[in-house]
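Q: I'm writing up a methods section and want to include an example of the input and output format. Could you take the sequence below and give the corresponding predicted structure tokens, formatted cleanly so I can copy it straight into the document?
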Amino acid sequence: MITSFLHVIDQIPAGNELGDVLQLINPIQIYRRFCAEKYIPLLPPSLSTHPLTHRHRALDTQIASLVRSRQQSAKLNEGKVLDYRTVLDLALQDEEYGSQATLTELVDQMKTFLFAGHDTSASMLSWAYYYLSTHPACLAALQSEHNNVFGTNTNPDELALQIKTNPSILGKLEYTLAVLKESLRLRPIGDGVRYASPGYVVRTATGAQFDVTGTILNAQHLGLHTREEIWGGMGEEFDPERFMDGKSVPLGYMPFATRPRDCIGRNLAYLEVLLLWL
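A: Here is the clean output for your methods example:
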């Protein structure tokens, strides 16, 4: 399953070329190597000598090389409709962003998709499997939806052809998406962190006020996602139905934060897991 997952994730940001890049950050290989060593230099005299610093530089070099290659390809194929549409290719084809973004910015954006994409999708998938294993009725409803949308006994090749021919068919997986959202509600990937601007005041429910200028504020997502005032008395129960069409989603649901600073990879994360689940 892990191999299949990585194969899906690798191709969405930039294509098959990311295989070499991901080898640089393979956590399993790093863990095995560190376990075999007697001493791990966590705090060396200089960060420039730290093994992770060298790995970070190598990663930047690999991604920069990939970006330059795709930039050249974008110039050669300007105005043409390409057979492949990765995130990087779409960014470079954008009339405004593609021409203005610096190499450093593009490298940073690719690293964001790599790291955040792997962590978000892996966490969402793991918890969704857990909750489905403990809620047989939800699992049966999800399987029924897949059969209704794609047909029974559909092999992977037929499934891929259906999606390629009609990508909007994924929009019919309403209950499947609801399962993913509910999994993220109960097990959010992280919290929201913001730096308070000058004069920013926090007001509590009791009316107390605090000037938090220059303070780093943490919006605790798990608390918001299960708060009784927002979700009712069953807020800690797994119930995908709360995210089905026609039902309003409370503002307190923010696994990817909210606009104008919501996560750029939100839809990508959902798409990755949907494709893998099929």
